[in-house]
């Protein structure tokens, strides 16, 4: 007790004093009504308000199942529990199964009595720690202490106490179990724990990023890919109620690889969670589309539940017939049964997939909870709204009741009555409770068994408005959790950096510490070093790429490893090394493989050295994987060689891989190096010795018909050998003769004579009708066609005159050339047809060239032809016309040139009669084009045959080339310039509400928008300073009144302080304890 000096308590106040104090009290009350018009709240003494305010918290409250906050009040089946500021837990309501955890008689265990007011859970012993979170269900309760241990008590028929004891047969008395510790995996602690308010399973998120669940598993709600059924031998033995069978062994939820939960909710035989990438996953029973995945198939492992537009989720709540989530853009989406308006969209329809809850404009939800068939949210203004089934007044709307004494269902979110400002809310099967910023707790709904905690245990009817929990003389004040850890005004679940740790640091127990080796952090988010990177130092903002010649084959590495000999790595940031190729080797830490040098090789991969070549072998290139045998014609007597030795002149090497050379024998030789065999002496040649590098030619007058000989033969009579090196003797040819043998030549027949056989010894005289104009003729020559001989013994023929011809030889006269042919020269034996490209009439001596634009395709033609359409010919004397080329055309016959395609048209082919207009989305800027151009990004062209493209207008964009139209910017984006291929996102504190915008609109004064790409702004928060002037005025009035009251007392006031017995009077107040707020672990 603190003594406070003041007026003698036995001295009555004067009427003037009473009037003054009354006026002051009334003036003080006026501003306080601005903060709350609630009757129950104004009834509290001001000192009590100050005593229990959670003043140390930036933003008190919680979101059930989130790792960022502690759930300090929880509602189950007809009962509720709360965590107090001193770390104790109190419960009230239905006590069946011992779920309230209270021991009335020491030594008798927890009892099953109902409690109409909050009662301490005294079965939680002091050595179990300071509790921060509580979670209720239908028949059991769990609490989480400050070091992450979970204790559970009550009914254990489905293994929901999680203590690894499945022996819960009926004979084993599974109810009234005192608190036992949940068997968490070794070296782990829990961040949050949740329970199904309508069924019998529980889940927790651990500090190692794993999620575990235990309890009922008849529908796969534990997410471990198995279920309890009559054939299961690892489940609780519930023969009388197998549908509740489960396991007390916590099971690890099988999320997709590299995903972990940041929030979790347990519903009616199903579970949902939000993963670290803000995606929603659900599993378990899917009756009534409770999983929101479009079908009703039960899932035994988590499966993605997609919010519309791939929105990210920040909060999740699961009830008896469905689930809801708050998205990062402050919308609420629900799925499952729509019975009694449970989905909040104005209907009773079922949603197989997430659908939007219809909120009022400006509503910004920051937390959500689910009951048996209804949901409630808290807005950033403190207003709470509920919708769905209103049994027993669970929505707290204060409205009329139906014939069965239940509230009217609400198909749209409806305000909780009483103008309360709540910071947290939690619903059970048929009740809801909430807390205010000062920790005061309120409940409403089914009052039976004491579930509302206000003493209404025996009340008939329902309580459909918030009532204060606790007795009037001892109201309940619950603890609360921090919802804005970094005090930046953003609720933690919406904050991308909730703890505001700098890069290189991360948050542990609300403290920023250096990130550990093998990892780095960006804005407080820890990332493990990936394969190929490492980090040996703490407090870093990035990892180091492994150097060339090194690798890192694990994540979270603190050092790089050298590539082993026989491997290499030329690149940085690699997770392994590359085996050396055959022909290469390397030592430790190599960044390149080394090619085996000349004279060595390596046939194997992953090698550390090379092999020398054998004698008779070589390698002449770096990186050889095999040795090469010396080819035939060469040899090598030494090892480790890069070349072979060519065989010398007069020597040879007959096979590959030889180590020496061999000498050529008699009759053989080699005249060049590197031979594989010796050469036989050629015909007409001979070799007389061994090891020779050349053969000798037979002299003229001699010859040799065989190869490989050592001498030559003389020419026979009637033959001759005119030169050295002859392989044959030559008979005198026709037209010559040789009367003696051994000659080197023959005698030619004189002109006018002939020799008509070989080997003749004398010539013969030419006969009549032939001639011989030269010596050495083998016969007399008949007059050739085109000529004639009209006498015997002639030495020359007579040519036919011009204009005549003679087709046969030996003729005595010539004939005139026929029409169509020409005889242009004297001595013609035939007429000549005109060649292609020319033509001639009959009786001509020359051909005429075809004119330009015409052609003559064949020989001996009498006329020319016009070029076809699509072709042309600029030159004369041509046998064909030219096809028009791409980008050109020829529209008429007989043309001498092609025409270029005009701008806006093109022609990709040949032989064309016309051009093609450019397609929409394309253009042709110049003439003579063989192709069209696509309009670039940011431009478009709706018409064909155009020479240019149109720029996209401001407020529009063209995202791809070849476009036929432009597209307006979507709401949330704008584009001030023309010719653009994208739109710009609206900046922070700006918005764009319509499509096709050319500029963004700044938020009005007082409004904010923290995100980019927004469609509208939101109302900014108000500060306490807005209310300060209202409080100052009444305080000044009170001070003036007190000064007036005591101004005349003077020194007499001192004597008045003593009582008649000489003792000093005093007033006392309770000691004000320290702040009850705590930061989240």
Task: State the CATH topology of the domain at 56-482.
Answer: Methylamine Dehydrogenase, Chain H
The outline comes out as elongated
CATH superfamily of the domain at 56-482: Regulator of chromosome condensation 1/beta-lactamase-inhibitor protein II
Structural class: mainly beta
Terminal CA distance reads 34 Å
Low-pLDDT stretches = 1-53, 1049-1081
Number of strands: 96
Mean pLDDT: 87
Radius of gyration: 56 Å
In brief, what are we looking at here?
Among the domains are: 56-482, 7 Propeller (Methylamine Dehydrogenase, Chain H); 492-496 and 504-562, Ribbon (Tumor Necrosis Factor Receptor, subunit A, domain 2). It is 5% helix and 28% strand. It has five helices and 96 strands.
Task: List the SSEs and their pairings.
Blueprint: E1 2-4, H1 15-32, H2 39-43, H3 46-52, E2 60-61, E3 73-75, E4 79-83, E5 89-93, E6 115-120, E7 131-136, E8 140-145, E9 150-154, E10 177-181, E11 190-195, E12 201-206, E13 211-216, E14 246-252, E15 261-266, E16 270-275, E17 280-284, E18 299-305, E19 313-318, E20 322-327, E21 332-336, E22 351-356, E23 365-370, E24 374-379, E25 384-388, E26 410-415, E27 422-427, E28 431-436, E29 441-445, E30 463-468, E31 470-471, E32 474-475, E33 481-482, E34 505-508, E35 511-514, E36 519-522, E37 525-528, E38 533-534, E39 544-545, E40 550-551, E41 561-562, E42 567-568, E43 578-579, E44 584-585, E45 594-595, E46 600-601, E47 611-612, E48 617-618, E49 628-629, E50 634-635, E51 645-646, E52 651-652, E53 662-663, E54 668-669, E55 679-680, E56 685-686, E57 696-697, E58 702-703, E59 713-714, E60 719-720, E61 730-731, E62 736-737, E63 747-748, E64 753-754, E65 764-765, E66 770-771, E67 781-782, E68 787-788, E69 798-799, E70 804-805, E71 815-816, E72 821-822, E73 832-833, E74 838-839, E75 848-849, E76 854-855, E77 865-866, ...
Antiparallel strand pairs: 1-96, 2-33, 3-4, 4-5, 5-6, 7-8, 8-9, 9-10, 11-12, 12-13, 13-14, 15-16, 16-17, 17-18, 19-20, 20-21, 21-22, 23-24, 24-25, 25-26, 27-28, 28-29, 29-30, 31-32, 34-35, 36-37, 38-39, 40-41, 42-43, 44-45, 46-47, 48-49, 50-51, 52-53, 54-55, 56-57, 58-59, 60-61, 62-63, 64-65, ...
